[in-house]
Design brief:
Number of strands: 6
Order of helices and strands: HEHEHEHEEHEHHHHHH
Structural class: alpha+beta
Strand content: 5-15%
Low-confidence stretches: 1-14
Number of helices: 11
Length: about 280
């Protein structure tokens, strides 16, 4: 196995991180993780919107920390203490970190897709074992767009994700997207949920079309160029409202739910028409 220890540097976070507070939070997180994991820390990377683009003050900051082996029980205990403490600190970004500690061997093969990793959810203080970050989209973002905070390029150890796999996954997941969302949010009552549904439809359909992962904002812009003009008002509404914060008391705009369901039907029609041509 390649020895990556020399590649884990003490350089501060670099890359597309425009917020000084976030840079400081990430520098501290990487330093703390290194103190706990020592030589078992291979690298630390940003995925999500800070990797694929269009991160803003409403974004969370998604990370994947790569470990030489599965974390030991002692390391896990120390990481749990660390991530329980971070959200209690002052600032915006201490409450908006989300990510997993992924063993190197898991990332080297797609056979490990769906395996649980030690994970911290946005704003939570309790870590859990979850498959959240071990998905095709996160794997692609890590290898192709990952922002290196410490360690070697992810392309040196992460298995490539074929476009055909991503496209097939979207063809399988898009038909049940709204039903899946309904298990944790009522898009008919919460405006954020309605916006998220439209963003997800656009993003997933673009991935279905080209086998890559794109930002939510860019996906809305792409959809405005791809779909008939009858959908432009809906897409513009969601694009304009992206900067609005989560507010469970804010209802969707009048008429937007009907349009969202109609747009979903249009997306699914195109998926059914084009899916037989997947190659």
């Amino acid at each position: 196995m390649t020895d990556y220890r020399a590649d884990v540097t003490d350089n501060p976070a670099t890359g597309p991180i425009p917020y000084p507070e976030l840079r400081a939070v990430l520098d501290d997180l990487v330093s703390s993780a290194r103190a706990i994991l020592a030589d078992d820390l291979i690298g630390f990377y940003l995925v999500g919107s800070f990797a694929v683009g269009d991160a803003d003050l409403q974004s969370d900051c998604d990370f994947i920390a790569v470990t030489r082996r599965p974390v030991t029980s002692g390391q896990e205990n120390h990481l749990r203490v660390l991530h329980s403490d971070i959200p209690t600190r002052n600032g915006l970004w201490t409450k908006n970190l989300e990510g997993s500690y992924a063993p190197l061997d898991d990332l080297g093969t797609l056979d490990a897709l769906g395996r649980q990793w030690l994970y911290i959810d946005r704003g939570w203080r309790k870590m859990q074992w979850s498959t959240h970050c071990n998905s095709l989209e996160q794997r692609w973002a890590l290898r192709e767009r990952g922002v290196v905070l410490a360690g070697p390029s992810p392309a040196t150890f992460a298995a490539p994700v074929p476009a055909t796999l991503l496209r097939a996954a979207m063809a399988e997941r898009l038909p049940r997207l709204l039903d899946d969302l309904a298990t944790w949010i009522d898009i008919g009552k919460i405006a954020w949920g309605q916006r998220y549904a439209v963003e997800s439809l656009c993003r997933m359909f673009w991935t279905f079309a080209d086998g890559q992962v794109h930002s939510k904002a860019a996906s809305l812009d792409w959809a405005m160029q791809t779909f008939d003009q009858q959908w432009t008002p809906l897409l513009r509404q969601v694009r304009a409202d992206r900067s609005l914060a989560w507010n469970p008391s804010e209802p969707p705009r009048e008429g937007s739910i009907h349009l969202t369901h109609a747009f979903s039907a249009e997306v699914l029609c195109r998926v059914r028409r084009e899916a037989p041509n997947l190659q």
